Amino acid sequence: MASLEGIDVVVLAGGLGTRLRTVLGDRPKVLAPVGGRPFLDHLLARLAAEGAGRVILSLGHLAKSVLRHLETGHQPLPVLASVEPKPLGTAGAIRFVAARLQGDPVLVMNGDTWLDCDFGAFLTAHRAAGRTASLLCVAVDDVERYGSVEVAADGSLARFVEKDPARSGRGLINGGIYLFSAAALDDLARMPGPSLERDFLGLLPPGSIHAHVAAGAAFIDIGTPESLAAAAAVIARGTKST
Prior knowledge:
This protein is an alpha/beta fold. It has helices at residues 21-24, 39-49, 63-71, 89-97, 119-129, 182-190, 196-199, 225-237, and strands spanning 8-13, 33-34, 37-38, 54-59, 79-83, 106-110, 113-116, 133-140, 148-151, 157-161, 171-180, 209-213, 218-221.
């Protein structure tokens, strides 16, 4: 069986895409054209190739456009769409779809991020670490745009560091891909707040989260016109771009 072993994957794709409106107009970010195909199609093909069982697509802004796109062609794996009744934030979006999730653990990923990593190694490391939550970390040349993460000597997440113009240069960032056990999802359900990082992960006791560093992984998010323009080359060649 492929590296994701049939597990459920939640793709968070309900964001407003404000920085891309001059480029995309009324097209949702997850349907941004990359190499002649919507970005979502690249993600679904990658997840299918990695052996994911199902994708639960969490939608909000311009959800009808995504639903129409899903209806136009055959998908490479089962896709369930879930439309938020109002903007819920990243943590709220996961709570909203939690009742539809099957299996343990569940992979959660941002719908505007491409990280060409070894998903099998991530899943294996998550299980070996024995923690209820894991996140993928990736090195970029300049952390100023993203904020950064600090990893403790035992491989656990030490802390998230907010975006700060005074903190720049090469470092580790949160790659926007997580593995959550059923216990972690239960904890998330009990904790209020919209932000996955600030209102859930950042409030867990020290040592609770395994930080898996995807060494040399190609990474890009499509959140700006510049990064969107560079995404096709990153996906096609696996060339790291930050």
